[in-house]
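Handout, section 4.2: multi-component inputs.
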Amino acid sequence: DAGVTQSPTHLIKTRGQHVTLRCSPISGHKSVSWYQQVLGQGPQFIFQYYEKEERGRGNFPDRFSARQFPNYSSELNVNALLLGDSALYLCASIGGRSQETQYFGPGTRLLVL
Amino acid sequence: EDQVTQSPEALRLQEGESSSLNCSYTVSGLRGLFWYRQDPGKGPEFLFTLYSAGEEKEKERLKATLTKKESFLHITAPKPEDSATYLCAADGSSNTGKLIFGQGTTLQVKP
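Output:
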C-alpha cells in the first residue's frame, strides 16, 4: 500500500514569496495533520483537518493556512515567507485503532533565502 | 502547559550494548503515547502506540513501556542500523489531533 506522499520534496524560495505544499494521505484515511520541524527539534503542530474541516490549529501566525479536498488530500499555504520559515514540513495521515496514530510522509524541505 | 521531555539528547553505544531512552510527559488526559524513529532528512517512522500505564509493546530489538509520568524505549543488543533519532510524542485530551513532541534522542551505535 502507498504511504503518505508529499510534494515537492525540496523547495527554495525568497523572503516575501508564497509557497504551497501538497500531501496525499494513506488510502482510506480521512484526516491529515501538518507539522513544522526545524533542524534539531521535534515537529511542531500546525493544523489538523478531518473530513475537510479544520479540527485543530497550533500556535502559528495567520500567514499559515491549509485546506483539505474531497479526496482527502491537503495543501499547506504559507504567505509572506520569512527566513525562519525554513524547515522540514511534514504531513501525517491519521488512522489506527482509535483514529489516533499519525503516519508521516517524507516531508518537504523548504529553504527561504 | 502540556510538555514532553526526552533524555538523553544524544546517546552513543557500542554494538550489543543495551540501553534505555526516557520520555517524561506532562499531559492532561493522555489519549496515546507514540514513539517514532527518524533518519536524517526523512519523515518520522511510526514504531509504537501506548494507551495506558503498564502497557508494553515490542518490535525486534525495541521495547516500549508506559507509566503515568514516563515512557521508556529499551534497546536490546543494538546494531549500527538502529542509529537514528527517536522521537516521543503525546496526544492529550484537546481532541485537536495535536501531537506534542519531545526534542528527540539521537542514538549512534558503533560497530
